[in-house]
Description:
With about 300 residues, the protein is mainly alpha-helical. The protein is built from 12 helices and 4 strands, in the order αββααααααβααααβα. It has helices at about 5-30, 55-75, 90-110, 120, 125-140, 140-145, 165-175, 195-205, 215-225, 230, 255-265, 280-295; strands at about 40-45, 50, 180, 270. The radius of gyration is 33 Å and the shape is elongated.
Amino acid sequence: MSTFWSIWVIVLTLGTIFGCWWLLWATRKGQSTDQETDRTTGHSFDGIEELDNPLPKWWFYLFLGTVIFSLGYLALYPGLGNFQGFLGWSQHNQWEEEVQLADARYGEIYARYGDVAIPELAGNEDAMQMGQRLFANHCAVCHGSAARGAIGFPNLTDDAWLYGGKPEDIVETLNNGRQGNMPAKGFMPNMTPTQVDQVVNYVLSFSNRAKNEEAAEAGAAVYAQGCAGCHGPEAKGNQAMGAPDLTDDAWLYGSTYEWIEETVLYGRENMMPAQSGRLSEDQIHILAAYVYSLSN
C-alpha cells in the first residue's frame, strides 16, 4: 500500500472513531439533567411526544468502552494503513503457524504411505480417501469435483494424457506444474483464411466430420507445414511437449469446426500450477496415486 493510501486509511479510521466519541460526549453533555424528566424535545408524531431523557449510564459507558477497545485493537493488530501493530501479527504468519501445526499433527499419517508404490497405493482405500480430500482442496477448482475437467482443463478420468499418465509423469506434473502453449496458426503465422479452413477440415477428417472433403485433402499439406512439428505427422500428439492427440475424442477446447478454427487462429495457453512448496512430498505422492486411480 502506498504512503498516500496508508495515511488516507489511518485518517478515515481514526476520524470515524473519534467522531463517534465526540457525538456520544456532545449529546450527553447537551442534556439538561442526568435524571429522567417529563421534559420533551418538542417533537411530536401521531400524538406521541419525544422525551428529552439521557442515555442510561450503563449504555453510555458501553459505547465509550467500545471506542476504547477499538483503539486498543488497532494499536495491537493491523488496521491502520501500513502500521502492523505492536504485536507484529499478520495473517501470513498465522497461516504459516497453522500449517506447521497441521504438518506436525498429520505429517506422520502422510509419511506412512511415502514409500508405497503409486499403483499399489491407488488400491488403498484409506490413502485414497486422503487423496480425495487433497484433490478437493487443491485441484477440484479447475478439474471439477469429479475430476472430469471443463473447457481448458483436462479430464483426469480418461486415458488421454497431455504429458503422460504414468506415475512418474503425474508426480512430475504435480511437483513442477506444466505450461502449455499452442501458437496462433501453428508454425505458419502467415496462414491464409483458406488455409485455416483447409487445416480445420483436415483435423475434422480424422473423425469423419470434415465439412469439405476437397479442403480436407488440401489441408494435409498445410498441417504438415504448420502443425506436424508438435502434433506429429500422424496427429497422434507428443507428450514430451504436451501436444494433444488430434485423432481421439478428447478435446480440451471443444471439437466443433468453430472451436478448432478459433484454436488455429488465436492459439491457446494453459498453465498447471506447481504444487511443490504448497504440498509436502508425501502429500504429492498420495495425490498422484489418487489421480492415477481415476483412470486405472
